[in-house]
Amino acid sequence: MNVVPFKNISVALLCVAIWPAVAGAVQYTNAINEDGWHSVTSVFECRLEQRVPLFGEAVFRTRAGEASGFYLRSRAPRFDAGEATVTARTPVWRGGNEEIPLGKVPVKKGTRPMWLGSAKAELLLSQLSRGMEVDLANGSWYGADAETITLTMTSIGFLPAYRKYLNCLAGLLPANFDQMKRTALYFPPGETDELDARVTQQLDRILKLVKNDNKIRQFYIDGHTDSAGDRADNLELSKTRAELVKAYLLRRGIPEDWMTVRWHGERYPVASNGSASGRAKNRRVTVRIERVEEIEVLPLAAKD
């Protein structure tokens, strides 16, 4: 087997990243001694990125409470709208010639030309983790005749950054702010003097988010009922339920002046009271959280 000197490969691949490899083709990639992979981790989001010279970044991302995805972020428009061909192949420095077609994916013009869902993102990750390179090939946005633009994600340096990304996934919060900013807590018919386990579990999810996001400083708690019974009694019942939620949050360390509590009785139904399922949706307390600019970290009390 002919072995290509390491130095020559490095120089050659660096040139490929800057100039067309052949007439009618432009490739963006990293030199063999420049991996570009790094991970960005927090309890809110995990990202695995490769910086590609003269192009931008290829990014795998998972937000708390959401499925993974993949997108491209370019410094200037590169790809044409349409479809890109995705291929996994053996790196030239490994001496093989295996190619695996991975199908076609949609592409649009602009600096965010590609977004792929979880299934395709995980497929790309699996190929990179086994040492393959991944090509994304499409026509140029400026319409040059028969010119192909190829972005190549290399596997050099991938595994260390990938391990950090996987560790980050294990520590993500169960939900993100967008998912938790408005939560409905449902109640059984009639009076109650305590919150059931399902409701406290929902509140604990909110509290876990608040503990890690020190910009959340406002809680709006609104009590509602169905239309069964007397209107005045329902108003009082909606107050009782809202106050139970407030009391639980107070015990867990949320300051009272962060909370605004209101009660509306049967005035604002979200479903018809003509059916049992509709009435069940109306017996609720909604908790809406908002962010403000704040730097003090909130100390939360332990659960009783």
Report on this structure.
The structure is a single chain. This protein has 304 residues and is of the alpha+beta class. It has two domains: 6-170, Immunoglobulin-like (Sandwich); 177-291, 60s Ribosomal Protein L30, Chain: A (2-Layer Sandwich). It is 28% helix and 30% strand. The protein contains seven helices and 14 strands. It has helices at 6-16, 118-129, 158-170, 177-180, 197-212, 231-251, 276-282, and strands at residues 25-28, 37-41, 45-52, 56-63, 69-74, 82-89, 99-107, 115-116, 133-139, 148-153, 182-186, 216-224, 259-263, 284-291. The strands form three sheets. Strands 1-10-9-6-7 form a five-stranded mixed sheet. Strands 2-3-4-5-8 form a five-stranded antiparallel sheet, with helices on one face. Strand 12 (216-224), helix 6 and strand 13 form a beta-alpha-beta unit. The termini are far apart. Mean pLDDT is 87; it is low at 1-23.
